[in-house]
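> forwarded from #structure-qc
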C-alpha cells in the first residue's frame, strides 16, 4: 500500500490597513463595494496542504478565500514552488473559493472595468495582491518544512456524500445539478488526520453586504473541523451555473454551510473507500477559440469599427464605456487574445481514483462529461483551479443569450454583450459554439477543445 505523508498550514488573509489597505470587494457585477472598516463576519484564509506519496514528488494544494486567482497571483506563486524545488508544475494546484464577500483582485475580473476605480484605489488592490503572493509563498515554504519533519503516515480514503434542496441551475431551461459532496480524507488508524471536501454551488449565500465572509465554505469548514478535530479544506466544483437556494444573509450562510458539512460528515461516518497506488500527474492547456478571429486583420478591424460605434451611443453606461475603451486599446495594438486559455490538471491515484482541476468558472455539464468518460473509476472534478479567465460554457449554453454565455439578444452572439460575464472578464467576443442543435461538439469550437484536452489529460 502506498505510504502518504502530509502537512498543513493556514494563515489569515483578510484585508486590513496593514496588508495593502484594499477595502474593495469582488464578486458582484458592476457595483463598487467596499469594506472601509475592514470588518469580517468570518475571516478569510489561505490554506496549504502537501501530500507526499512514497518517494514521489509531493502534491501541493493551496486554496484562497478570494474570488479568483488571476495570473499576477498564480504565476509567481507557481514559479516559486518550482524554483524552490518543492515540487514540479504538474503537482501544484492553486484554487480560489470564489467567495463573493472577499477582496477584489487585479485583472480577472477586471476591477477597473467593473468599478471605474481611480488609480489610487487600483494601487491598493495591486498592493494587496502583492502582499498575498508573498504571504502564500511563505505559507508554502513553511508547509514544506513541516512535511519534511513528518514521520507518521496516513492512508487515503474517498467517498461522496449527497445533498438535496441546496442548489439549482441558474439557467431556467437547464435542470443539471451537482448535489454530491466529494470527500477525500487522510487517516491515521481510524482517526481522520485531514479532510478535503467540496460542493458545486456559487458561494453567494451571504449576499452583497460590505462585510468580508468566507461564505458557506467557511461555515462548512469550521463545522467539520470542530467535529473531527482535524484540518478541513474546501474545494469548489463546476459551479459556473449552480447557485444556492439558501441565500440572503448570515443565517442563510450558516444553514447552507452546515448542510454541506453534515453531508460530508455523514459520508465519513458511513465509510469511505481506500485510495491507493502510484500517483501520475498531467497538465495541459485547452485553447478555447473565440467566435471572431482577432488575429485576422479584417475581422479585427470589423470589431474595432463595431466598438467605436458602441462607445459613442447616446446614454452609454460608464462601465460599458470603460469596457469599450479597454477592448479598443487591445484590438488597436493587436494584443487581444484569440483564444481563452484554460488549464486542465489531473492527478491519478492508482487506476481507480483521480482529482481533476479545471480552470475558469466551469459549468456543471463538464463535470458530468468527464465523470462519465472516466467511469467506472472515481473522479473528483474541481473548478476554479489555477486560473479563472472567465466562465467556461458549453455549446448548449453558448446557444443562449445569457450572462454566462457572454452575449445578449440585442447585440447578438458575435460581440460581448453589456452586463454579461465576457464584459466582466474583459473579452471582446464570446467563445465559438457549434452550429445550433449540433448533437456533438464540432472541431474548432470551445466545447470541442475542452473535451479533447480534458480527455487527453485523463488518459
Amino acid at each position: 500500500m502506498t505510504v502518504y505523508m502530509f502537512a498543513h498550514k493556514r494563515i489569515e488573509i483578510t484585508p486590513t490597513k496593514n496588508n495593502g489597505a484594499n477595502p474593495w470587494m469582488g464578486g458582484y457585477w458592476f457595483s463598487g463595494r467596499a469594506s472601509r472598516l475592514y470588518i469580517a463576519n468570518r475571516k478569510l484564509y489561505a490554506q496549504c496542504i502537501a501530500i507526499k506519496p512514497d518517494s514521489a514528488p509531493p502534491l501541493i494544494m493551496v486554496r484562497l478565500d478570494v474570488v479568483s486567482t488571476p495570473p499576477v497571483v498564480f504565476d509567481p506563486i507557481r514559479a516559486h514552488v518550482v524554483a524552490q524545488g518543492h515540487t514540479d508544475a504538474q503537482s501544484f494546484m492553486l484554487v480560489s473559493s470564489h467567495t463573493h464577500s472577499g477582496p477584489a483582485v487585479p485583472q480577472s475580473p477586471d476591477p477597473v472595468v467593473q468599478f471605474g476605480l481611480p488609480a489610487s484605489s487600483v494601487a491598493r488592490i495591486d498592493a494587496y495582491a502583492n502582499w498575498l503572493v508573498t504571504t502564500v509563498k511563505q505559507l508554502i515554504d513553511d508547509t514544506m518544512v513541516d512535511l519534511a519533519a513528518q514521520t507518521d503516515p496516513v492512508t487515503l480514503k474517498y467517498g461522496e456524500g449527497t445533498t438535496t434542496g441546496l442548489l439549482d441551475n441558474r439557467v431556467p431551461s437547464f435542470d443539471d445539478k451537482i448535489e454530491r459532496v466529494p470527500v477525500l480524507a487522510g487517516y491515521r488508524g481510524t482517526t481522520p488526520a485531514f479532510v478535503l471536501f467540496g460542493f458545486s454551488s456559487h458561494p453567494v449565500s451571504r449576499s452583497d453586504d460590505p462585510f468580508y465572509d468566507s461564505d458557506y465554505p467557511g461555515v462548512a469548514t469550521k463545522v467539520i473541523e470542530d467535529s473531527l478535530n482535524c484540518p478541513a479544506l474546501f474545494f469548489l466544483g463546476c459551479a459556473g451555473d449552480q447557485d444556492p437556494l439558501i441565500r440572503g444573509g448570515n443565517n442563510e450562510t450558516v444553514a447552507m454551510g452546515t448542510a454541506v458539512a453534515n453531508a460530508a460528515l455523514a459520508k465519513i461516518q458511513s465509510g469511505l473507500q481506500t485510495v491507493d497506488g502510484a500517483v501520475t500527474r498531467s497538465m495541459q492547456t485547452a485553447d478555447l477559440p473565440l467566435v471572431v478571429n482577432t488575429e485576422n486583420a479584417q475581422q479585427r478591424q470589423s470589431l474595432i469599427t463595431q466598438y467605436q460605434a458602441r462607445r459613442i451611443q447616446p446614454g452609454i453606461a460608464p462601465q460599458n464605456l470603460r469596457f469599450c475603451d479597454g477592448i479598443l486599446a487591445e484590438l488597436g495594438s493587436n494584443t487581444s487574445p484569440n483564444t481563452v486559455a484554460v488549464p486542465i490538471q489531473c492527478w491519478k491515484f492508482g487506476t481507480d481514483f483521480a482529482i481533476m482541476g479545471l480552470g475558469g468558472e466551469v459549468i456543471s455539464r463538464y463535470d458530468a462529461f468527464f465523470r462519465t468518460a472516466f467511469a467506472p473509476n472515481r473522479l473528483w472534478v474541481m473548478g476554479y483551479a489555477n486560473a479563472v479567465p472567465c466562465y467556461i460554457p458549453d455549446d448548449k449554453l453558448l446557444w443562449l443569450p445569457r450572462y454566462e454565455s457572454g452575449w445578449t439578444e440585442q447585440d447578438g452572439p458575435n460581440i460581448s454583450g453589456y452586463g454579461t460575464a465576457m464584459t466582466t472578464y474583459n473579452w471582446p467576443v464570446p467563445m465559438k459554439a457549434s452550429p445550433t442543435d449540433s448533437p456533438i461538439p464540432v472541431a474548432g469550437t470551445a466545447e470541442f477543445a475542452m473535451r479533447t484536452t480534458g480527455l487527453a489529460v485523463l488518459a
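QC bot note: The CA atoms of residues 154 and 189 lie 8 Å apart. The chain has two domains: 4-275, 279-286+337-458.
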